[in-house]
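Sync notes, pocket subgroup
Present: LS, DG
LS reminded everyone that the earlier model was apo-only. Rerun requested with nicotinamide-adenine-dinucleotide included. Inputs:
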Amino acid sequence: MNTYNVCLLPGDGIGPEIIAEGCKVLDAVGAKHGMAFDYTEALIGGCAIDACGEALPAATLDAAKAADAVLLAAVGGPQWDTTDPNRPRPEQGLLGIRKELGLYTNLRPVQIFSALADASTLKPQVIDGVDLMIVRELTGGLYFGERMRFYDEEGAGPGGSNGQRAFDTLEYREYEIERIARKAFEAASKRRGRVHSIDKANVLETSRLWREVVHAVHDADFPEIELVDMLVDNAAMQLISRPADFDVVVTENMFGDILSDEAAQITGSLGMLASASLGDGTALYEPSHGSAPDIAGLGVANPLAQVLSVEMMLRYSFDAEAAADDVRRAVTTVLDEGWRTGDIKDVGTPADKVVGCAAMGDLVAERL
Ligand code: NAD
């Protein structure tokens, strides 16, 4: 029996409700596959601000660093919203833990559960078979480069402007591209073996370096993977015109930010989307949605994005492919049987098939 230490960060809003279901599923799949989990719970986000005055207390960071993996639910809520730069904000917990754990890769899978195909705004024949993964570089590029706003010495421009200028810098180092490319090829080798590398190499120098480095990593270590280069403007169109053709999509920080939100919309159901942030040490797994304060404490939240983040933890931190496949199969079965939480029900869902958060977790655990 292998025992793994999992740091739990329930956070705020629906966080505690959905993370409980994540653990329920983890324990159920562990019992079947000879794995046990020791949980250490810590504070992050708004609840940490209330208890300790900061969104990421040192004790939380220590617990996360000591764990084999971190399972996060969500942070935030209106009671902590502030525009005062001197007051702590829940999101500082998220950004802080990603930085401190060196999580430079964000994985966002987009998969259609056929039972939920109607939730998409795209035609059924377009989304049939969609199963793709966006691999976004998370700690470099335009969002981290030098930026400035200033008044131009040459003075006002035409039309009475006062001569303000601003710039942001898009910079990548070779090693930053190499390590994210490696993550993408590794992910593809566990999937259908195809990587689309998205850039703007016809215009940007960083993209030309990106393309060279991605090809070098591919040719040296992953020649069996199919590698396709695509310009970002074309990718934005192809993602919604033929999404089923994509397997792994790797791209830099800003392109990934935009394309992953576009790709998430293909499914149409926010409560179903999980994500993983990986570096070279402890990784972090979380749903893509927020803390849903409007339904917190009502027991009606959809725990499936959290459950699917557990699936990713099994796959990427514990190398437990069979267990991960079992979790996905159990979720698919529950949906195929017609069970729904409030957010994914439709007009035709019978009332006795609409269940709350804990009951949905029970169903997945029972099917396991
Ligand atoms: P949200 O994702 O929390 O909610 C958007 C809508 O989707 C709401 O109507 C909510 O009820 C619903 N929803 C979300 N997850 C659901 C689930 N699992 N089951 C059923 N319904 C669900 O986004 P928001 O309302 O813009 O933000 C609320 C708070 O969450 C804010 O404080 C925001 O800063 C924070 N937030 C946190 C994260 C994170 O922790 N990673 C991400 C986004 C937003």
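DG: Residues 109 and 133 are 4 Å apart (CA to CA).
LS: The radius of gyration is 21 Å.
Action: DG to write up.
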